[in-house]
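Dear support,

Our group has been running a series of protein-ligand predictions, and this particular one with fe (ii) ion is the one our PI (initials K.S.) wants archived with full inputs and outputs. We had some confusion internally about which version of the output was final, so please treat the block below as the authoritative record. The input we submitted was:
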Amino acid sequence: MNLQNTETQKNLMRALAGESLARNRYTFAAGQAERDGLPVIAAVFRYTADQEKEHAEIFADFLRRGGAENIPLEGGFPVDTAADTLSLLAAAAKNEAKEHGEIYPAFAAAARNEGFAEVARKLELIAEIENCHAGRFQAFHRLLSERKLFVSDLACGWICINCGHEFEGTEAPRNCPVCGEAGYFIRVEMSPFSYLNQ
Ligand SMILES: [Fe+2]
Ligand SMILES: [Fe+2]
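Confirmed final output from the archive:
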């Protein structure tokens, strides 16, 4: 695969830069969530940051295979100006939605135009993941803004992602009765390794 002097090569570098920055923005946001007493939201940001690292690696691999050494770049990259967890979740959802709906579809179309079907397909698959990221950030933004992160209208299962304690109820206590740590409860159905409904 020769990517030299193609728009696809530039777009892959933009995508690599965008994913790398997103990974760091989410890592910084995780730190803010910790400072805001919301380690469960910090875990959401870190979980997503790890996935952005994988996306970055996929784009870096294409660039390596395409013969890139040094790529001058122009592009627009978001800066998180927000300084609280709720606003950071909103910004993250917005940026993910833009990646899904605008940026990656445009990159995929350009790649397909230039005859790089494999790159186009991968961009489309990653765009779908960014849609899931947008949905996840939106969901946590809504729960936090409606003060329902630790409260549910209907009884549901809760898990402390620090020690693993699970119980059923309409409200998670601020501090886990087992490990004593605060802010680690999440609805079991929203935890990444739930084995319910199997
Ligand atoms: Fe990504
Ligand atoms: Fe993402």
